Task: inverse folding
């Protein structure tokens, strides 16, 4: 050990290791872990080892969950569901509060355990992960207390299966378990096989606070255990993990009626404008991709810098990078710890090899002895480089430049993902413009990777759907009040060769066409089927393609009208529907027509009133949660209610600013085709509503297979829905099945429709002209 | 960073180096808050860093009731800031503070006590703390302090000129002061608590360096808010930028906000992380403090003996 005098010369930091002995004692005492089912740990049978990635040393034996274990856990959760769901909110709140308090009292133990099992620096588990876990349980204790009045008529889903990743093991558990329990569900959770230990310690805490048996069950194991959970008789799966596995889960759940939320990968842009505080932005990179070894789904991994300042920015970035300390995760002065597992290290270096082979230059980022990779970034990198497109999930960013704001937005959105974004500009005008134009579920303005239990988190596109945190997150664990169920009739078989002639030979022949981009279009296939005594065009995949293109082209202008502008269009539509009531005679009942007119008024009224909120996340932060339209929606309208059913879905969608491609009732399409004429004369801009008639199920599948569609509503049941859901699993388009209801009934409208027609974007904007002088605990 | 050993000669006024500077206050506060949590010093390392802080202290008394005897007592403490047996236990044979800092009328008393110790005497001047005196009187005060034997001069800037963005007037005043200082080190006190915004702090820092300051210093100790980590961070980044432009190393002196041993560690971590090893030496880093030394000495005593000492067991300053 160097002498004090020597250190006074070198001024080095020296070791500062957090004491792991309490955790090691616990691990020794437990030795081998079973599952936590019905309030007790099972006897371990088949086990695997979990290790400290920084040393490779084994920590404990973990049980490999079988389908039988999962079934047992689900049975326990089902048994507990009734009692827990019926319990007064206050009583559930007491348990969640007790959990929050107990975690807080054991924060050091849990931080050390997390760091040992995962390899993340103790500073992060101590200052970020565990405090956020505590915050999450506190926040949701509050939701449990007030849920009955805040979500009137809502009921728990039942049993929820949750599968979480290894990058923030206990924090992801909290994000899943706290809202599920607060909403009155019971849980079967599968932690990641690399990092099960804090979940098992959490199970002990639940037992310690007396949480009723079966309310929380934990089954450890690998992907096979997760697959068994997906297959099990549960009511919802909540998954955080890779996009690839997310797709597989969505495919497996197609047609099952189980709910699904997915929080998947990302390749989030980090945009630095010329007027940014460059030092702040560099520090933002440290908090993004050099946080948690870059194993962060929302990390700002694609740095985009204005050419005007790129040289200076890179100089500062490189200097800052050299100050980062890579080392033992338990050392309190470590910035970059261990990659979670050698498998991941190999994966990362593989991507880097391909990236440099494709011409990129790697600065830093060298693989080290053991499970470590130095922080780095890739420069001179083209948009087509694999490292620009794939999630590296390691401490390596990409760095490229842009010239103007519009180019920054184009590059930012040039990705399959849409989880988060970080934008840096001292101009509020520019920063908020970027925040609104970048496609992502979370946007951090002049900050990065800031989280709070009250601020919804989740993505768009291949980053998944559903939100965690706040009111939105709670709604994803609740059932909306149910409407009187009326099953939608299955469509009759279609024949392209209609037999018999039913026309009045004295009249002029009526030609109905598809309605695409504001114009009547003949179907691409040139075929028709007979319905309601008319020859109805048989739309095809190509007509869907054209309709989606038309809808995409109309989005900008339609959203640009704003809520008030759209409301005027919808009122005018109501006016014209009323004038043309008689034209619908024979195609839709007068009840349907009257309901349609009222719907127009209802959603015209709501068009400028379905608002976002500013949530109380952190002091000094304006945290804005705004509903945004999906963009292009595919709507498979009810077969049984040709006008009221169709408009009950189309109107909320367009009121929120979506454009739609709609497949009208297959058996009774004439009302929709008549509606086309009314739309055309009601100032509904071309492309906002597109109507493609024909065989519902193949058209629904074509819609769900089109990447340009951002959300699907499917009013049908049975095989058609399953086929669409399966197709949407590949495109990761969220599919909503509207309640099967009497579409002329007054209650077939409301906020739940508007909510499904949008998803939230959470925008974080820290403010403060003057320093508080205290430093505070912002991070 | 290579170390050029030249004294900052200043530059002509270059407003383009700072006029478009943008500083995001919440981001600065986040960095300042997270930095102390990112580095930890234990055992020998903590002791060594605390002793290094002692080397960098400008042990200060700037009170209306200062007397020659009070200053003499302070100077004795500056010569022997940590008890000899504690130092001996750690294998350190000699340690003094970086300087003592007093009012001009106390300089001669300080010089007498410190003779032969190698500890320089710094004097505040230019109408400390407000600086609201005619310029010729402020310059005369510098000359008086030098006459009394001061080795270093801590001047105060005209805050009004910053708030009015009158950079050329500020620059001219500071150049005149620098000229008056001659070979004595000039530390320019920005009184950051009165400049309020970090952008004002950064701009004033640049002007002070361009006018040839050897050190930029946060505060007089008399403002409502004195040295803070976010303000220090801002000033360090201007020192870095100035160095990138000119190659000159300018020193930094936080004053008036550092009271605990933990503060001393935090500020040193800030210096090392933002600027580098060279800025942990007394030629580029000073801490303006009076009570800080007592807390450091108690920590050192604990390190050596394993017990916390009551303050009455350690020699007063």
Result:
């Amino acid at each position: 050990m160097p002498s004090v005098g020597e250190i006074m010369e070198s001024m080095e930091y020296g070791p500062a290791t957090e004491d792991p002995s309490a955790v090691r004692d616990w691990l020794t005492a437990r030795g081998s872990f079973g599952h936590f089912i019905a309030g007790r740990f099972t006897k371990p049978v088949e086990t695997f080892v979990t290790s400290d990635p920084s040393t490779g040393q084994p920590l404990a034996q973990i049980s490999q969950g079988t389908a039988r274990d999962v079934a047992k856990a689900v049975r326990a959760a089902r048994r507990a569901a009734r009692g827990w769901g019926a319990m007064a909110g206050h009583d559930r709140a007491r348990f969640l509060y007790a959990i929050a308090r107990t975690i807080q009292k054991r924060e050091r133990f849990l931080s050390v355990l997390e760091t040992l099992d995962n390899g993340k620096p103790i500073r992060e588990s101590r200052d970020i992960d565990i405090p956020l876990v505590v915050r999450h349980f506190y926040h949701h204790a509050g939701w449990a207390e007030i849920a009955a009045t805040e979500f009137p008529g809502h009921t728990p889903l039942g049993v929820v299966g949750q599968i979480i990743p290894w990058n923030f093991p206990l924090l992801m558990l909290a994000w899943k378990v706290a809202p599920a329990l607060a909403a009155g569900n019971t849980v079967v959770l599968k932690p990641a096989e690399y990092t099960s230990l804090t979940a098992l310690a959490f199970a002990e805490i639940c037992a310690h606070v007396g949480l009723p048996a079966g309310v929380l069950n934990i089954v450890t194991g690998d992907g096979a255990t997760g697959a068994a959970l997906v297959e099990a008789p549960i009511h919802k799966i909540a998954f955080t993990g890779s996009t690839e596995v997310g797709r597989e889960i969505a495919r497996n759940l197609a047609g099952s009626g189980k709910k699904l939320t997915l929080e998947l990968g990302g390749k989030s842009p980090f945009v630095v404008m010329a007027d940014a505080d460059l030092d702040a932005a560099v520090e933002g990179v440290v908090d993004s991709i050099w946080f948690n070894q870059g194993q962060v789904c929302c990390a700002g991994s694609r740095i985009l810098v204005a050419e005007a300042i790129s040289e200076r920015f890179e100089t500062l970035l490189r200097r800052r990078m050299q100050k980062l300390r890579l080392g033992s995760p338990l050392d309190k002065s470590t910035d970059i710890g261990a990659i979670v597992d050698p498998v991941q290290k190999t994966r990362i270096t593989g991507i880097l090899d391909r990236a440099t082979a494709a011409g990129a230059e790697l600065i830093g980022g060298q693989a080290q002895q053991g499970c470590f990779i130095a922080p780095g970034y890739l420069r001179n990198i083209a948009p087509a480089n694999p490292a620009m497109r794939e999630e590296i999930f390691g401490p390596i960013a990409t760095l490229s430049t842009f010239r103007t704001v519009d180019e920054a937005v184009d590059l930012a959105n040039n990705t399959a993902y849409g989880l988060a974004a970080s934008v840096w500009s001292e101009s509020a005008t520019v920063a908020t413009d970027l925040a609104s134009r970048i496609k992502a579920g979370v946007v951090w303005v002049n900050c990065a990777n800031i989280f709070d239990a009250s601020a919804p988190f989740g993505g768009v596109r291949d980053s998944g759907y559903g939100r965690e945190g706040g009111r939105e997150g709670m709604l994803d664990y609740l059932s909306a009040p149910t409407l009187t169920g009326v099953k939608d009739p299955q469509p009759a078989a279609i024949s392209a060769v209609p037999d018999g002639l039913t026309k009045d030979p004295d009249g002029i022949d009526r030609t109905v066409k598809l309605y695409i981009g504001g114009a009547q279009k003949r179907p691409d296939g040139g075929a028709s089927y007979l319905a309601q005594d008319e020859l109805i065009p048989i739309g095809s995949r190509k007509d869907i393609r054209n309709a989606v293109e038309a809808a995409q082209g109309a989005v900008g202008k339609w959203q640009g009208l704003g809520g008030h502008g759209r409301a005027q269009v919808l009122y005018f539509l109501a006016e014209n529907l009323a004038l043309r009531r008689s034209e619908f005679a024979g195609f839709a009942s007068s009840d349907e027509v009257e309901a349609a007119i009222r719907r127009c008024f209802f959603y015209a009224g709501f068009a400028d009133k379905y608002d976002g909120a500013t949530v109380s996340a952190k002091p000094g932060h304006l945290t804005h949660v705004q509903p945004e339209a999906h963009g292009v929606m595919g709507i498979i309208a009810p077969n049984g209610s040709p006008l009221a059913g169709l408009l009950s879905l189309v109107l909320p969608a367009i009121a929120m600013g979506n454009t739609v491609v709609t497949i009208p009732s297959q058996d009774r399409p004439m009302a929709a085709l008549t509606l086309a004429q009314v739309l055309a004369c009601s100032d509904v801009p071309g492309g906002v509503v597109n109507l493609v008639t024909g065989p519902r199920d193949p058209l629904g599948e074509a819609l769900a297979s089109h990447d340009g569609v951002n959300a699907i509503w499917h009013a049908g049941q049975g095989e058609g829905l399953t086929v669409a859901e399966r197709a949407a699993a590949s495109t990761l388009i969220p599919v909503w099945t509207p309640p099967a209801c009497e579409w002329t009934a007054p209650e077939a409208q409301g906020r739940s429709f508007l909510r499904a027609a949008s998803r939230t974007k959470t925008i974080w904007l820290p403010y403060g002209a003057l320093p508080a002088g205290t430093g505070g605990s912002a991070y | 960073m290579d170390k050029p050993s030249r004294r900052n000669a200043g530059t002509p006024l270059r407003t383009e180096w700072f006029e478009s500077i943008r500083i995001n206050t919440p981001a600065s506060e986040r960095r300042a808050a997270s930095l102390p949590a990112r580095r930890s010093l234990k055992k020998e390392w903590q002791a060594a860093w605390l002793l290094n802080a002692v080397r960098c202290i400008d042990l200060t008394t700037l009170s209306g009731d200062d007397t020659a005897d009070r200053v003499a007592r302070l100077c004795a403490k500056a010569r022997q800031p940590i008890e000899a047996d504690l130092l001996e236990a750690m294998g350190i044979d000699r340690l003094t503070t970086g300087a003592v800092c007093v009012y001009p009328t106390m300089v001669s008393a300080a010089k007498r006590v410190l003779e032969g110790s190698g500890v320089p005497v710094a004097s505040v001047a230019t109408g400390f703390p407000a600086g609201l005196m005619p310029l010729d009187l402020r310059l005369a005060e510098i000359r008086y302090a030098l006459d009394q034997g001061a080795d270093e001069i801590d001047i105060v800037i005209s805050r009004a000129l910053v708030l009015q963005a009158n950079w050329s007037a500020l620059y001219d005043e500071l150049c005149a002061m620098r000229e008056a200082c001659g070979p004595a080190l000039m530390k320019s006190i920005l009184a950051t608590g009165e400049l309020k915004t970090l952008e004002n702090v950064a701009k004033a820092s640049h002007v002070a360096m361009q006018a040839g300051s050897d050190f930029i210093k946060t505060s007089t100790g008399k403002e409502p808010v004195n040295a803070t980590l976010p303000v220090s961070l801002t000033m360090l980044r201007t020192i870095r930028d100035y160095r990138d432009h000119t190659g000159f190393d300018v020193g930094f002196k936080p004053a008036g906000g550092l009271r605990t041993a933990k503060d001393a560690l935090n500020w040193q971590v800030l210096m090392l992380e933002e600027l580098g090893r060279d800025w942990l030496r007394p030629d580029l880093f000073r801490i303006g403090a009076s009570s800080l030394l007592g807390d450091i000495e108690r920590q050192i005593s604990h390190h050596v003996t394993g017990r916390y000492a009551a303050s009455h067991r350690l020699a007063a300053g």
Q: What stands out?
A: Chain B touches chain A through 46 residues (CB under 8 Å). The radius of gyration of chain B is 19 Å. The beta strands of chain B are 57-60, 99-102, 121-124, 152-156, 185-189, 215-217, 251-253, 287-289. Residues 229-246 of chain B form the longest helix (18 residues).
